[in-house]
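Problem statement: downstream parser choked on a complex file, so we are re-checking the raw output for the pyridoxal-5'-phosphate run. The parser issue turned out to be on our end (a line-ending mismatch), but while we're here, posting the original submission so the record is complete.
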Amino acid sequence: MSACATTYLDHAATTPLRSEVADAMAEARSIPLGNPTGSHRPAQRARRLLEESRDEVAAALGRAPGDIIFTSGGTESANLAVLGTLGAAVAGGAAAVSVVSSSVEHPAVRESCRAAVQLHGVNWCELAVDHDGVVDLDALADLIDDSTTLIAVMLANNETGVVQPLEAVIETVRARSATARIFTDAVQAATFMDLASWTAEADLVALSAHKVGGPVGMGVLAVGPTTPLAPQHHGGGQERERRSGTQDVAGAVGLAAALRLSVSERRQAARRVAALRDRLAAGLLASVAGTHRTVAAGVAILPGHLHVCFEGIEREELLLALSERGICASGGSSCASGALEPSYVLAAMGVPDALVRGAIRFTLGHDTTEADVERALATIPGVIAALRHAH
Ligand code: PLP
């Protein structure tokens, strides 16, 4: 992305809307869209577009269309998965209700677990990860028993890009409990991973459109018919009584278009983006002394993620200085105010505080070019040298 001399390396925060997606959404809106619950022609057309989009999303996830619940994004999907599953267990009179979540889950999951403790009195414990942020399967085995209602392990982490061994997680859980449900937050993974195979055995899967080149404000929770789910929105009973509220039809069309592109381009895009990421990593390691890759070589990470820690650097200062030069990166753990918070993900991985201070996430995506990487490499070493010199 070179417009306005901006090098956008923050795709994990949000990906630019793809032009094909914008076109599909504009076409959907080119004739007035009715409310899909109505009976006149615009309503029928809206219903048809919604259901066609549902079919496409379902196919990308390897699920039945009836499993797909359209939501307002990844955060709502995670809330519905966690609070919906635990709420249903409580309402069903289960003797004990508990949730286990990995200690590196996105706040959408973590805070939903915390809310479940407060609202429903459920037990919550966090599953440890190793130095690379990969969940500890032995610890998981020790945490599961007959009272375990839900296990939440994300497919890939938003800060580090680390891919969790989801298949092994599911095997471990199934070996110990016939009733525990497994929720995976696949929000970051959706662009580059084959969700139909990776999440096939999970009971609940969350997606967000704006992480795959689709529109902001659109998401999905996929949940099979045998997983009890208490709705968190009450009203008109849309989405098979699981999520009330008039659906965003153009948003669903956009999400389906974005997933269609991701699925068709995935292999090639993953190779291309990983090569650019590797070039950026190698260039930074070679030209900036005191650069550490946070995740060890050989650990599975998403193709677009590069998480590094620069010694002797305060990340806020570096991000600001880079932004002034048109390089957009991220600290990986900002809150709604935009302030950078200490990363609980890096803390869970045991990254020393001195390195956490200089932790930066670069995330590349579908529109990242070689020129972007070369520009980043031409800029970052000088900026870091100047910041170190100033201290
Ligand atoms: N889960 C993960 C792993 C994410 O990275 C994000 C967004 O950063 C979310 C959930 C929340 O998604 P949304 O922004 O669509 O609410």
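For whoever reads this later: The mean pLDDT is 95.
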